[in-house]
Amino acid sequence: MRRRAGRPATPVLSREIIARAALGLIDDAGADGFSLAALAKRLGVRPSSFYNHVDGKDDILAAVRELVSDSIDASMFARLPWDEALIVWAHGYRDTFAAHPPAISLLATLPITGALRTLRMYDQVVSGLERGGWPGEMIIPVMVSVESFILGSALDMVAPPDMFDSGPLSSEAPSFAAAVRARDAAAAANGRPPADLSFEVGLAAIVDGLRCTLLALGGPPRPLGPSGQLGPLGPLGSLPDGTGAERAAGPLPRDITRDTDLTGEPA
Q1: CA 214 to CA 223: how far, in whole Å?
Q2: What is the pLDDT averaged over residues 169-196?
Q3: pTM of the shown model
């Protein structure tokens, strides 16, 4: 008997299709709204259909982690000094999770068992830190400390813009209110959201501190550039501009994607 043309009675599933639907469900319904029943309804199948492709809820979340991790480039650890690579990696990692903020609470506490592509991404980071001279017992703490900051910064990107608006209580906390206004003015002058300013300041401080920590542990110092300053990152952890020329450090860390510092002044 010839099979009738048209849509199959049961939707075709695969691990990738299930993962993409699960990520969409998490984005739409949040971490609390994710369940196998809700995912099955979204895909128009019975929950039992999943077990032909995945091992259960944890395996689906592992597939979601891989899907998200695929957007995080870690290849720079093979070609850049460890500190430069951390900064570039942190920017890409933050942008990826800022696009899926509800996934942070699910994936940040989920064991990485079964997430092969995520493991490969982490392996690139670890290999870069090894080449940079970090002792083995410090590599995971370094990576996790940066990763924790990145995930918090990703949530900050999607926080309400008036989160620190003290409103009619401004007179009760005048120093705080003035500091928020100053931050907002600096961010507006640079044409970027306030969360970017916090991220750049924090990331520069973390990388600068890690460089000092590695030196204290007996690691290799960064080579001095022609100006006598530390390497192309500069004292505050900024990357070189598009021509590769070094830039002097300003009162705030340089934005690695533009030729201005975070006050809006030309570099």
Answers
A1: 14
A2: 91
A3: 0.73
